[in-house]
Design goal:
- This protein is an alpha+beta fold.
- The chain contains 15 helices and 18 strands.
- The longest helix is centred in the last third of the chain and has 18 residues.
- The protein is globular.
């Protein structure tokens, strides 16, 4: 059976932002709105974006670098979206911008949260600071580039640096240890921005430099270098937004652990396979899953393709593995799903989180572990991440609740379906808000399995 999934949410919003900066018309082929993208696009209208859906295409007209900026800036978007919108505004350091809300407790809290987030990513000159109103100008100075414990610039900051350098016609260069969530970087290259993005290592050194470092016993690390130069105009190009990796991973996991008929073959089409975003597929394959990329396309500046998933062979099961911070940094959206995979694996699975997100994810881990333990699986939450000792046959488990976290709810939905639990997962509506239609798609895999059993 073939399945189509929702477009990647983050990439959709980045592409709409790029279309604003294009001097002309951008056409998105086979377009569908990702969750939250219509609201983001409506806000970009205030910057001058124009768009119209024509059949399976979205036709977008951009303003180039001459886009307008509203002085009353939005404050109620998720962090990475807010930072993108504010970065567009930061091209002007003379304009006074304002965060404002109602004067009640909720309004004051929202302005304070936006102010704290703004000052995390930007230097600003404060013009007015009142309980429900904050007015400021952007400063010309840039905060220093700080790398995380893995030697990378955190992706929200990287996107902010790239976008601000672009709209200000400036120069930027930095190196990172690896590639994590570089969708905007590759998008900029595709749209013709003067950007170099390349791996560097021994091949960039002269023979003398190589010999000297070897004699000194120094290890030559390979790095990923980014260099952005002044770009006068971004020209229009057609674009395509591939499917959400998280949705595809949930389907792949259910086919793997759901006890489906041995002859079941599920193809998930046009999945985003960006290596810095879709690392979870490599994790599941390392555990023994039968996943194959049957059509890999390098188009529109990035990689996407069709995945073909088959159930495990009779008598086989997943095997526990230890996954480092580096690989988990490319799989954070699938972290809860990987935890469910570990519940079915032989031996012990350890998922180590990058240092910068451990405190933030700790309560999510505790909540997830509480649900997973309902199956009888051993789960331990520790400072670095989570450790799970799987069971060969999981037959118990009910009263699952995803709470306020859609990725947790999605993972528990896969778990519930895999063990044939008849009770719905609590707060499944939160899952459907982020991944519309995913529950029915997951159930269709099991319906396909049942029909194959009946025909056998």
């Amino acid at each position: 059976m073939d399945l189509l999934i929702n477009p990647d949410r983050e990439r959709t919003k980045l592409a709409l932002l790029m279309a604003l900066l294009v001097n002309g018309r951008t056409v998105f082929e086979d377009f569908a709105w990702a969750t939250g993208a219509e609201r983001f696009a409506a806000t970009l209208k205030e910057f001058g974006l124009e768009y119209e859906q024509q059949g399976h295409q979205l036709v977008v007209s951009g303003k180039g670098f001459q886009y307008s900026v509203p002085t009353l800036l939005p404050i109620d978007f998720p962090e990475y979206e807010s930072v993108l919108l504010w970065t567009l505004a930061s091209k002007s350091c003379d304009t006074v911008y304002t965060f404002a809300a109602d004067g009640d407790e909720a309004g004051v809290a929202s302005v304070n949260a936006a102010k704290a987030l703004l000052q995390k990513y930007f230097k600003v000159n404060v013009q007015a600071d009142e309980p429900a109103r904050f007015a400021f100008c952007f400063d010309m100075a840039e905060p220093p580039i700080r790398k995380d414990s893995l030697g990378n610039v955190p992706y929200i900051m990287r996107n902010r640096l790239l976008l601000r350098t672009l709209v200000r016609s400036e120069y930027l260069a930095f190196e990172e240890a690896s590639v994590v969530r570089d969708q905007l970087t590759r998008m900029l290259q595709y749209f013709g921005v003067a950007l170099k993005y390349e791996g560097r290592g021994m091949e960039q050194l002269s023979e003398f430099e190589r010999r000297l470092m070897m004699a000194q016993g120094k290890k030559i690390e390979r790095t990923q270098a980014t260099e952005l130069s002044e770009t006068k105009v971004i020209t229009a190009r057609d674009y395509y937004i591939p499917g959400d990796s998280t949705e595809a991973f949930a389907i792949a996991l259910l086919v793997t652990v759901g006890g489906v008929h041995k002859d079941t073959v599920v193809k998930v089409k046009n999945v985003d396979l960006n290596g810095g975003r879709a690392g979870a597929f490599g994790c599941l394959k390392r555990m023994g899953a039968n996943i194959e990329t049957v059509s890999r396309r390098e188009k529109f500046g990035d990689v996407f393709g069709d995945l073909e998933i088959r159930p495990l062979a009779a008598g086989k099961r997943l095997q526990g593995r230890r996954f480092s911070e580096e690989i988990i940094s490319t799989s954070l959206e699938e972290y809860a799903l990987l935890s469910v995979a570990a519940c079915f694996a032989g031996g012990e699975t350890i998922l180590r989180l990058p240092k910068e997100v451990r405190e933030q994810i700790r309560p999510v881990n505790e909540f997830l572990a509480e649900n997973l333990r309902k199956t009888g699986v051993e789960v331990g939450v520790y400072d670095d991440g989570i450790v799970i000792r799987g069971m060969e046959n999981i037959v118990n488990g009910s009263d699952f609740d995803g709470g306020e976290w859609p990725q947790v709810g999605l993972a528990l939905t896969v778990l519930s379906l895999a063990i044939q639990n008849d009770e719905p997962v609590g707060h499944v509506e939160v899952v459907e808000q982020s991944f519309p239609g995913i529950v029915d798609k997951l159930k269709s895999v099991l319906v396909q399995e049942n029909s194959e059993k009946e025909g056998a």
